[in-house]
Design brief:
The protein is mainly alpha-helical and about 300 residues long. It is built from 12 helices and no strands.
């Protein structure tokens, strides 16, 4: 039974992400290890926001790192991804491949877009799991008492060495800036997630993809789908082993060294609320270009 309600903080807390280029030597090493173990080419905004609270994030990652590249966690993320992709298909994405070809996109360009979507389809899942663990523990909840894990052999993420090209608001043309403003308004967020800034590299594609998704956001069906993703993340995080012995007491004590526990908890709640919707949206984009649910 899932007893962690999906909760959007009101008001939205201020976040102060520490980008990779601003990280000191110690934090750069943590970021590099995070990306290596999760097999993602970017640091999620959630973990960069947590890094603004160094004692808190240090305690969270020191406990999570023992799980992050193990089979049990990889399999849990795969099941979470399948939940998001199945829920997205049920929302009825509009096929876009033929539309993009008619706009002049070649098969190679469409494949590049698919490959980028794959990066986020994979990477959003561990970041959602981390946010879920952080929120649970900051609310005094517990994780599993199981400690045994199984090493994962091979690669589960996209090919290593990829770099993301992000279209920041100050880089964007006026139509893309307007689109970013619409995304923030539709999602009720004061920032634009990395996924959207990366996909905006192809402006006409992203306008079409977002234009199809936008009417679904906020509908009863959409909220139910996002809640399914949230519930699956909670279920998987509760069932996952806890080899790093993460506990509420340990994480709360660490958070108190950085700020009030309430402040850090609201940041965790924000990301644990928004990431199910982000995972659902990326799954929707994937389906538009012909991707079917994994697993």
């Amino acid at each position: 039974m899932n007893d962690l309600p999906r909760l959007k903080p009101d008001p939205i807390p201020a976040i102060r992400p520490v980008p990779e280029y601003q990280a000191d030597e110690r934090l750069q090493a943590v970021y590099a290890e995070t990306k290596e173990r999760l097999q993602t080419p970017w640091m999620g905004v959630v973990t960069m926001a947590f890094a603004a609270y160094p004692n808190f994030y240090g305690a969270l990652w020191s406990g999570f790192r023992a799980l992050a590249d193990q089979k049990e966690f990889v399999d849990a993320c795969a099941r979470l991804r399948s939940e998001a992709e199945t829920a997205a298909v049920a929302l009825g994405p509009k096929p876009l491949q033929e539309i993009m070809l008619a706009k002049g996109y070649g098969p190679r360009e469409i494949d590049e877009i698919r490959a980028l979507i794959e990066v986020f389809s994979h990477g959003n899942m561990p970041y959602l799991m981390i946010a879920t663990a952080a929120r649970m523990l900051l609310e005094g909840d517990t994780l599993s008492e199981a400690r045994a894990v199984t090493p994962y052999d091979g690669r589960h993420g996209p090919a290593a060495g990829q770099r993301l090209t992000l279209i920041e608001p100050h880089h964007a043309d006026a139509p893309t800036q307007d689109l970013y403003a619409e995304i923030q308004s539709a999602l009720g967020l004061p920032f634009v997630n990395t996924d959207y800034r990366a996909l905006a590299r192809w402006p006409s594609y992203f306008q079409a993809a977002w234009g199809d998704l936008r009417p679904k956001i906020g509908t009863t069906a959409y909220e139910a789908a996002a809640t399914k993703v949230h519930a699956r993340a909670t279920t998987e995080m509760r069932a996952a082993p806890n080899p790093g012995d993460l506990s509420a007491e340990r994480l709360i004590e660490a958070a108190r060294k950085d700020a009030t526990v309430a402040e850090v908890r609201e940041v965790a709640r924000l990301f644990q609320w928004l990431l199910p919707g982000l995972a659902l949206n990326v799954a929707y984009f994937r389906s538009q270009l012909g991707g079917s649910p994994t697993l």
